[in-house]
Design a protein that fits this description.
Structural class: alpha/beta
CATH architecture of the largest domain: 2-Layer Sandwich
Number of helices: 9
Radius of gyration: 19 Å
Distance between the termini: 28 Å
Strand order of the largest sheet: 3-2-1-4-8
Strand content: 15-25%
Order of helices and strands: EEEHEEEEHEHEEEHHHHEHEH
CATH class of the largest domain: Alpha Beta
Number of strands: 13
CATH topology of the largest domain: Nucleotidyltransferase, domain 5
CATH superfamily of the largest domain: ATPase, nucleotide binding domain
Number of domains: 2
């Protein structure tokens, strides 16, 4: 049995479709070290595994009691298996066991957006009834109802990125057409910008050029409309009290929340829209959640002293 005391630390790793983030986080929620490196998606699952192992080893100290890892897609946490990820290219990957063999630590495997939602619920936005939307290379969400995270019958709830917002629209990595993720993710924005004739640019550059570039404005306007369309569906069905935006695109700030709120209002004329807020953790909600999930496996359930945001 793993014992937790005031000196305990957990290595937390959030594997994303663009970047992998890692931190060593103590029992007070303080990050003692942090790293962010590109995810070698093109090199395949084995390279991603080796990156995660390398990051964990680089953060090792005698106080580390285990490793929390979160990944996108479909995750079977009880078996420690990453079932499927359109953005990382793996199927039925026994990630927990593979990492435990290499690191000789207990490893907990979770879903990145579920972890982010738990982080917001327990420390950040203090959500009792709400929706956490994480927008990065992909898009997913977590619904919190009466203080509980909704996981669904097969643990697959929240795949907001694969809600169809344009009939026969752009091709998504999942194989379908018109998915939200194909229009509003940080992975899709550069592709759509280039297709319009805007050249090569990442999502951050597109946001930066909104005041002067017509291609950026068109891509952004379409992304906002698609996001609002998907969110209007969720609001109509689940009635969340607030919507919290996390992930890399949350760094756009008011350039995202202001037009998104207006577009959502225009699609919900029959009722008031819930407020849209930015996550205190921004793109770090997943890595904090990975630590939190591990601590819960060893009996730590009180995170009331953890401050919102990645503190270090």
């Amino acid at each position: 049995m793993i014992e937790v005391d005031a000196t305990s630390e957990v290595i937390a790793i959030d594997v994303g479709g663009t970047f992998t983030k890692a931190a060593r986080i103590d029992v007070r929620g303080v990050a003692r070290s942090f790293a962010m490196v590109p995810t070698p998606v093109a090199e395949g699952p084995e390279a991603i595994l080796e990156l995660a192992v390398s990051l964990a080893r680089s953060l090792e100290t005698p106080n580390v009691i285990g490793v929390g890892v979160v990944v996108p897609g479909i995750v079977d946490s009880s078996k420690g298996v990453a079932r499927y990820s359109a953005n990382l290219g793996w199927r039925d990957w026994p990630l927990r066991d593979l990492m435990e063999e290499r690191l000789l630590h207990r490893v907990n495997l979770g879903h990145d957006v579920m972890a982010a939602g738990e982080t917001e619920m327990r420390t950040g936005a203090g959500i009792e009834n709400g929706l956490v939307v994480v927008i990065g290379t992909g898009i997913a969400s977590v619904t919190v109802l009466n203080g509980e995270v909704v996981k669904g019958a097969q643990g697959m709830a929240g795949e907001l990125g694969h809600v169809v917002v344009r009939n026969q629209g752009a091709l998504c990595r999942c194989g379908n057409r018109g998915c939200l993720e194909a229009y509003a993710s940080t992975g899709a924005l550069p592709l759509r910008f280039r297709d319009l004739g805007g050249g090569d640019a990442d999502a951050e550059s597109i946001v930066r050029e909104l005041s002067s570039d017509s291609f950026a404005q068109e891509v952004w306007s379409q992304a906002i409309d698609c996001l609002a369309t998907a969110l209007a569906m969720v609001v109509s069905i689940l009635d969340p009290g607030k919507i919290v935006i996390a992930g890399g695109l949350s760094l756009a700030g008011e350039a995202l929340t202001t037009p998104l709120s207006a577009s959502l209002n225009s699609k919900l004329l029959w009722r008031a829209s819930p407020p849209i807020e930015l996550s205190h953790y921004q793109q770090h909600a997943g890595v904090v959640g990975a630590a939190m999930q591990f601590y819960r496996t060893v009996g730590l359930n009180d995170f009331s002293t953890w401050s919102p945001g990645l503190k270090g």
